Each structure stands twice: as C-alpha cells, then as structure tokens.
Amino acid sequence: MGLCGTGTAVPMFWRKPFVMRFLLVCLWVVLSDAVQVKDFPGSTFCLDSEIQIKKPKDVPWRTWRGLHVVDSSGFEVDACQILPEGSLLTIPEKCINHETGRRVAHLSLRDSLENNVVFQISCKDEQADSDSEYMEPVIRCTPEYMEATISRKLSGFDEEIVRPPPPASTWTIGIDDGTLVKLNLPTAKRLGYDLTSNDTSLTIRVNVKAFGIKELTSQGQKFYSGNIALIQERQNPKIRVDVKLICATGPPACNKTHMTLSIPNFGGILQNIKIGNKLVELTTYALQEEGITLDMGSGVQLSFELAKLQVVTAPNQQSYYLQSLTLVFLIDELTVPMNLNLQCGLQSPTINFKCTPDGFMMFEVLATLTKPNLDLNTVTVRDRSCQPQEKTSNRIYFKFALNTCGTTGKRSNVGGKLLYENEVSALWKELPRRDISRDSELRETIRCFYNGSDSKPINASVVTPPPPVSSRNDGPLLIVMSVYPDISYQTPYRDDQYPILKTLRDPIYLEVQVLNRNDPNIELVLDDCWATMSRDPEALPQWNVVVDGCQESHDSYLTVFHPVNNVPLATYRKRFEVKAFAFMQGGQLSTNFVYFHCHAIICDITSPDSSLCSKSCPPSRKRRDELFLHRHSTLASPPGPVLLLASEASLTSEDEQDVITQVTIGVLPAFALVAVIALVAVFINLKCKPES
User: Strand pairing of 500-502 and 642-644?
Assistant: First the structure.
C-alpha cells in the first residue's frame, strides 16, 4: 500500500508519522526565516570612508562568503554586492547609512542553526570623533517659531558622495512624540514644519504650536521642546539627522533691578552661557562680572542686571534688551545651543494703586517686585502702626483713609489741585549696619490728586422710574462643535491640539452644543452633519454623516449617537461617533485632512415647530420645512481638522511601491516552498485513492 490507506473521513496520508514530520520540517524552514538583528560579534575597523570587519572564528567560510548587505528590515540592497577578501570584508561608503553621530551598516548571513540573522555594524562618525563633543545645530528661538540650520557637513549628515545634494522635497520629517511619526513635506508643512534646502544646508522652521511640540510654563513664561528627525531614504547612503528643538519664548519678567528668564525643568542641563561672542563660565565670579544671577534649583532662572542691558526710554516705560543670548544645554548626551533675543518693558510706577473718590488710598505690593523677591514682612507706610488689610506669602494689600497712616496733604502748584502723598518702603537703614545683605530694598511714593471742589458734599436724590415694558431678545444662536479624545466626553481637544491625529476607522467623538441659552424647555436638534476636504463647509466633495438628524444609511460604518448624561441642561448637547475615513479622488488618497460641519436648530419641547423636532428615524417622515431651516438653523464646525495617518504616514506612492516590491520579493521563496508542500500533498492524496 505504501502511503495509501483506506478511510473517507480523514485521508490516510495525514496520519502517516513521517509525512507529518516532513510537513512540520517544511513549516519550520519557512518560519525560521524570521529576521533577527544582532550586534556583529567580530572585529570592526572604522576608517574615514569605509568600514572593515573581520570574520568571527565561529562563522564557517561558506557562510562568510555568502553574506550580503541589507537594510535594517533584512531586505537586500542591490547596489551593494560586495565580497570578502580572505577574512576581511570592506563595506564602502555607499552601503553605509548615516545617523546622528554614527555610521551604520547591516549584513545578513545564516548562523549555525541555519537561521537568517541580520548583524548591525556601527561606527562613531569620523567628524564626531574629531570633535571634543557632538553639538547640535543652534536653535534660533522667536516667540512664534524655532529654526535650526543643519550644515550638510555636520556629523551624521555627510553628503559628499552625493552630487548634487538631494532637494528638500525628497526628505521626510519624523516627529518623535513617544512614537516616531514620519510625514512627507506637504503634510508636515500643514502641521507647522517648513523645510528648505540649498547646496550647503537644510533649514527647518517649526511653529511653537506645531503638532508634537510640548509646552511647559515656569513663572508664567512659556517654554517649548520637541524631537524631530530629518530622514533621507531614497538613495544610498541613507541619512538620518536628529534635531532637538528647544525654545524659551518668555516673555521675561522685568522689575526695577533685573530682567529674569525662567525655564522649567525639561530634562536638559545648562552647560554654559554666551552673550554675543563672549563665553560666560558658570562660576560665581564670572556670573557676577556680567551681572547675572543663576538659580538651577528647579529648572533654570537667569536674572540679568538692568544696568548691564541696552535700554530704550519712552513715555511711562523703559524697555531693556539683551541681544544674542545663547544657552547651551546637555540633552540626552547631545549638546544643544539655543539662541535668544530678550526684551522686557518696565512700567512706572511699579506699585499698583488707586485713589477712590470717597477719600481712600488703595495699593498692593507683590513679592516679585524686586529681585531677589521682596520680604513682605518689611513693607511699611509712613505710619508703621498701619497694618495691611490682606497679606499672603507673595502679596500685601493696603487700604486706608487719606487722613490716616501718615498721609500728608497739600495744595499743588499745578491747577490748584489737592495732593496727598504716602511712602511705601522696605529698607534696612534702621537696623545695625551690616557688611552684606541678601535682601532687596524698596522705596515708592504714592500720590493722589483731587480737584479742590471734590471735597464738597454732594446732594443727591433717587427717583425710581416705572418698570420698562417686558421684552425678549435672545440674540443669535451660539452653537459650537467639539471633538473629544474618548467616549467619556470629559474634556474636548483644545484649539492648539488641532489637527487631531487618527488612523482609518478610529472612532471620532463629536459634540454639538448651544451656549447662549438657559431655558430648560428647549432642545438642540441636529439637522445635517457632513465632512469636507477644506475649512469651507460648501466645498465639494462632501460626505454626510448625519442626515435630517439621523444616521447616513449609505455609509457602511453607521454614525453612532451617544446619550448625554451627568451635565447640566443635557438637551443643549448632541453627541455622536464617526469612524475615521479619508477622501479619495480617482482611486487615490487626495488629502489627509477631514473637516466636520453641522447644521443645528433649537426646538421648543412644549410646542415643536419643525418636523425635525419630532424624533423619528430613519428620516422617511414628512418633508422638512426648508424655509424654517433656512431661517433658523445655525452652522458649527470644530476649531480644526482631523489628520488621517496610515501606519507609515510619510510614505509617498513611490515609497509604497518600493515597499510592496521588497515584500513581494522577500515572501516569494516562502510561497514557493508552501506551493511545493501543497503539490506533494495532492500527489500523495491522488496516489492513495483506491482503484476502481
């Protein structure tokens, strides 16, 4: 019988042990091709324009001669067919990928178990080795954007073998917000990233509110940070340059003695300070020479003496400038310089005060009025027995009559006005003489002017007019549309978080709400909701997600309406969920952005005046009153769009074709092997059929 047997339920050949072993071995061979990436175990020699490696002792000569250059995914690089010369293999520059501060190559060979293994060979870049430390490009910081110019000769960015240098359009921008999102330039530009190129450098300009940029606050001053990568993958050598973005936009605080810049603790360590071309060491003596006070207890606080700064005087204000300040931080073992131009204005007077018509002097003193902070326990007026009405750790508030607390009054020589004066001070002159002081001093004179007739009594009578005729005018509807992160509908996305990143079929949670009403007898009702490719709600094409307040029946993923609970005036809101989609034109993805819009009306629950106010779906009810809707519906749209990202958001059509080709080539041997197994199984099965 050989392999043959009888039985109808299960072919006998499946029950033969050696056949099963044969099939399992074939399956193991297919699965064993899974790529593993390991560090190369042999010796590595990093030369100026190439990398040499030496054969490890445990690698057979047959395997050593069969290795080939691949990318990090295990796909062979056709342009890099190289052979060893004895026990040495030379990897030329064209087969080496450049990353920030290092050069990387990948080789594929089979180990002793016949597994396909990818080995990584890494060298520090020769330019990085020649410098004492690698320094990132200088980040030029303004209140609106951060800008970095990357020289093509910087470490990790050597294009000497590529002439002419590739244009900016061939680069990809990677935004690292915990996960690297790769975007092509048009998409990145819409998100606030602008890349330009010339023969010597690339310049990346990033809006401080761009996607992926983190915002921190210290003492009311703004600080922004982000990680991006400039990636060139369309030719050899492949290049990746990582850029750390940091920007302190301030604005700095200014008092009578100092300008203070506050930077929160963001993970960077301040290494040095440059003012213009002068390097200021972080020593007490060097800082004092430049009039700088440095506090790194919590983040970085830098205070600069106003006397050392440029000053421009204008009516009631003095502006102080510090041009070309460079702060160099160590971030993740990279030295990152940030260049700033600081400016602050000092108003006069520095104490907020008010003189009331009924004869009171009111003012407050803040601890931050001086640098270092003022000791509020030392603040007094002329009559030191007068106590403040309010006092906290950072604020003190006085209110007293003009004839108390040591206030003096006299007639002014200007216009015959009455002048009242008091003095606020925090001085140490009454204490024993000291050689040093670490406390601030304050002296301010507060003046109140009154016309001479202001002190005359005023006779007044109150006449109560009849009540006005009752009227009602609610004004135009104020309806807003928001997007929420999840189904809890707790907090909507802020304006600065748009565009919102989604992948296809991700849920998008939307809400429409009326704001300027408080009548419990009214209800917000959706009319139509739709999506467009631009901010214009009338733009074409359009895709309906809600029609006449109901689901769009032609959509394979129906809109889901969610109940509104645990909020006041729940009838003022409508919530629904849409699965993320992208617009297509001619079979191609036309845009990554989707904008939502809704028309809504207000219904009187006690007396519905429109067919939309009667809840019935599907919308096969009476034709709605178009004239009513034209007069009373209101349009609402979220503050920004949804951005649709695929798993590799930056792939262009050419990139996608390359990937498809590589994947096809990679899996063809496995498919061929599976096909052979299937043919063997069919052949055995045919042989086993009983002869008629």
Answer: parallel
